[in-house]
Amino acid sequence: ETGVTQSPTHLIKTRGQQVTLRCSSQSGHNTVSWYQQALGQGPQFIFQYYREEENGRGNFPPRFSGLQFPNYSSELNVNALELDDSALYLCASSPGWGEADTQYFGPGTRLTVL
Amino acid sequence: GESVGLHLPTLSVQEGDNSIINCAYSNSASDYFIWYKQESGKGPQFIIDIRSNMDKRQGQRVTVLLNKTVKHLSLQIAATQPGDSAVYFCAENPNTGFQKLVFGTGTRLLVSP
Questions:
Q1: CB < 8 Å from B in window 30-69 of A
Q2: Cβ–Cβ gap A99/B99 under 8 Å
Q3: Hey, is A67 helix, strand or coil?
Q4: Which of A44, A46, A94, B83 could form a disulfide with A31 if both were Cys (CB 3.0 to 4.6 A apart)?
Q5: Gyration radius (Cα) of chain B, Å
Q6: Where are the beta strands (DSSP E) in chain B?
Q7: What does each of the 114 residues of chain A score in pLDDT, given as a tens digit?
Q8: Among B36, B93, B104, whose Cβ lies nearest the Cβ of A99?
């Protein structure tokens, strides 16, 4: 086990709605990254937070946003849900902020958009 | 564009055999590479990593080889066990200045008894 937890496990939403996914990192891990994994694909990087600030972003629109809190928890918010947002959403925490620091993944939240 | 590809989508081996999973990467600026194992219904699990200043690194029953000349990465699993059955992803950090990993589509390893 990585010590990274995510909630909820599964979620069903309809197009146009908003969703908040939650992640709890390992204690002491100041960096958290979020990934989207479509069925049969590898994870795609959404963004990274370090000490409560976004410091790196992938090719995702602004309706994907996040928050990181001092207690090692974080959120991924997605507004105006689209059908293509259906995927497994993974958070990964890391003890450092360097590129070569190992990222430890949680089990993911399966989001289905109808 | 960024891409990390895999040569074989599915690899079937017998228990006890050695497995080799291959991966090609496209970004010559990448300086950090990782192999993850993902079992059904779970998040990716770290297996082993390697930096670009190395060409080989060994772990417990696993070895990663890096050939920067041809931008190729491989994962060798010794004495493959049924519990090794999973999807394996290679990932690279394309030297972005933050912890962005670029993953391939994965190789499914099937180990039969």
A1: 31, 33, 35, 40-45, 48, 50, 55-56, 58
A2: yes
A3: strand
A4: A94
A5: 13
A6: 4-6, 10-14, 19-25, 32-38, 45-51, 56-58, 62-67, 72-77, 86-93, 102-103, 107-112
A7: 778 999 999 999 999 999 999 999 988 888 999 999 998 889 999 999 998 999 899 999 999 999 999 988 999 999 999 999 999 999 999 987 776 788 999 999 999 999
A8: B93
